[in-house]
Amino acid sequence: MSNELERLGAEAASADALAAEQNKTPGQAEAEQAARVARDEGIEKEAAALTDLAAQAVEALWPAVGISPDTRQKFAGKLAPVLKKHNLSSLFGRWAEEFDLGIFFCGLAYGGYKAVQADKVARGAQGSGNQAKPDGGE
To answer: Where are the domains of the chain?
Structure first.
């Protein structure tokens, strides 16, 4: 009996929602549609931005890896529905600039580290070329 009451309650709620949807004015329906379109466009832009940030991070860590614009676009196209499905569109939206700054800073720091390591190797190679050989030969 309890299941029957729950089912009837769910049907009534569904009917109420349908009636409320049908009682909307054309202006309200258009405004809601425009809001959905704007949200979807925002999600697509966010997916593209997140994809670019990730690609920049990968390329900064592994310079030999190049991620083409076509691959980035395809990945963003696959990411957008996932963001929408799990309602993650606002997760990075408020913090987009901070994420961008963090990725940029990490890229600078890693680039600096790699430059220092390359400089150490170059100085070591220069230093070993100018020193006399241990066996006394030239």
So the answer is: 2-128
